[in-house]
């Protein structure tokens, strides 16, 4: 992979009042879209083929959460902290309002930003977002997620750290190998996306950057995702939001996503007849639907 592939992507950061670095990447100069990647993700969770963004004249601002990439760790964080980081990024860039787009583990961060900074969001989209789970939904996921999120739910930090550490040791020499192994039992639609060379190029860059500081950011994120979402007031969310979700998603169960969407009076669920990575193939449609709500 050469740097030329990302020559149009600017690597940017700022320092928050508490001394933490918050980093993001930015490409394009048009309509601003704030992107919140999945888990584990980084500011380099960008498409290797960005023609979909270019064709729509978009300024894509891809963020990363504390502990990933170049963004300072914040142990014990949940979701409110990063929502304030995102507002600071917009202030730094001189942007009052943006479209908001997040996926997978970025879902609660989209909700937190919409709840705490509603005046900064034109419209929002969540794709295959991770929702709070009920007991019978853990076994609907791929085995890696079942075990990890049960440990997070139970507050078993040692078991969670040991599981993530095993995957991290492999990532250091083969960035996509743990994901390939974990997704071995995923739906065929996911495996088809994962075989796409352009997808793999983007995912490898994002993964290497995500673990630039080690695995602590991933550990913090999994604890937050699997714990109680006490700092997100769903009743405060008035943003127009569309939630796209795969009916056969084994990373984030459809039933759990549907239950969460039903608690959001301004949200609409759109079902995808496929698995967790289907939004990669459908991104043009997802972006067009988001922009049409502006």
Description:
By secondary structure, the protein is of the alpha/beta class. It has one domain: 3-Layer(aba) Sandwich (Rossmann fold), CATH 3.40.50.1820. It is 39% helix and 17% strand. It has twelve helices and eight strands. Strands 1-2-4-3-5-6-7-8 form an eight-stranded mixed β-sheet, with helices on both faces. Helix 4 packs antiparallel against helix 5, helix 4 (143-154) crosses helix 9 and helix 5 crosses helix 9. The longest helix has 15 residues, at 157-171. It is globular, with a radius of gyration of 17 Å. The termini are far apart.
Based on the model shown, name its key terms.
294 residues; eight-stranded mixed sheet; Rossmann fold; alpha/beta
Strand ordering within the main sheet: 1-2-4-3-5-6-7-8
Largest sheet: 8 strands, mixed
Report strand %. 15-25%
**CATH architecture descriptor text:** 3-Layer(aba) Sandwich
Overall number of strands = 8
Overall tally of domains:
1
What's the helix-strand series?
EEEHEHEHEHHHHHHEHEHH
Low-confidence stretches: none
Structural class determined from secondary elements: alpha/beta
The CATH topology label is Rossmann fold
Roughly what percent helix? 25-40%
Q: What's the pLDDT, averaged over the residues? A: 96
CATH superfamily grouping = Alpha/Beta hydrolase fold, catalytic domain
Name the shape in a single word. globular
Please write the CATH class name.
Alpha Beta
Give the count of helical stretches. Answer: 12
Radius of gyration: 17 Å
How far apart lie the N and C ends?
36 Å
